[in-house]
Amino acid sequence: MALQLGDVAPDFEADTTEGRIKFHDWIGDSWAVLFSHPKDFTPVCTTELGYMANAKPEFDSRNVKIIGLSVDGLDNHEAWAKDIEETQGTAPNYPIISDDDFNVSKLYGMLPASTSGDPSSRTPADNQTVRNVFVIGPDKKVKLILVYPMTTGRNFDEVLRVIDSLQLTAAHKVATPVNWHKGEDVIIAGSVSNDQAKEIYPDGWEEPRPYIRIVPQPE
User: What is the H or E stretch that residue 145 is in?
Assistant: First the structure.
């Protein structure tokens, strides 16, 4: 079965560039972003890993841990980190999982369960489905899944925007409208009755339709 929103993210143990981890323990009480790569020394992924290194303070400020994954061994990861630093300006400052046994890629539905063999004999095209972003909450449940083709770099600003929405809507009974950014108006959740909404929002709300109740973003 494919991994779906609301599922518990599969737990695993794996070697990373920052030591061996047990995934759920590593997440702890934080949020997490797991983003995967088909192979080391691929051009689009090089730009992504460098961007995430520069963006790490933005994720830190939201209590979000970053972890990468690539279907190669640790030796390759370490050599690739030098290329990333030289070409993108910053080396990865977060762990990168060595998935040379395909275990995590298979657990997360990115490669078929039958995948086996020597990862060094596989091309990026063989692993082209290992291009996912998973956002995982402190409850260890999957909150977002994005899948990108190899030829299109990921938009991690969008991942931050979604995390802002996820964290806001987890704390308040609201939803965020199209293209919403932090600080903009939100929508009262449909699960909240008008009587309940009056208690939460005594100043009222804008109502272009009875099912669209707009209020300022809660603090």
Answer: strand 142-147
Domain membership flag for residue 61: yes
Contact predicate 174/218, CB 8 Å: yes
Q: Give the global pTM.
A: 0.95
Task: State the Cα–Cα distance between residues 194 and 197, nearest whole angstrom.
Answer: 5
Q: What is the pLDDT of residue 2?
A: 86
CATH number at residue 132: 3.40.30.10
Residue 40 annotated among the catalytic residues of the structure: no
Among the listed residues 40, 45, 99, 100, the single catalytic one is 45
Task: Work out the average pLDDT over 27-40.
Answer: 98
Is the separation of the CB atoms in 31 and 163 below 8 Å? yes
Among this protein's residues, is 126 annotated catalytic? Answer: no
For residue 117, the SS3 value is coil
Q: What would the pLDDT profile of 71-95 be if each residue is shown by its tens digit?
A: 999 999 999 999 999 999 999 999 9
Biggest CA–CA distance in the chain, Å, is: 64
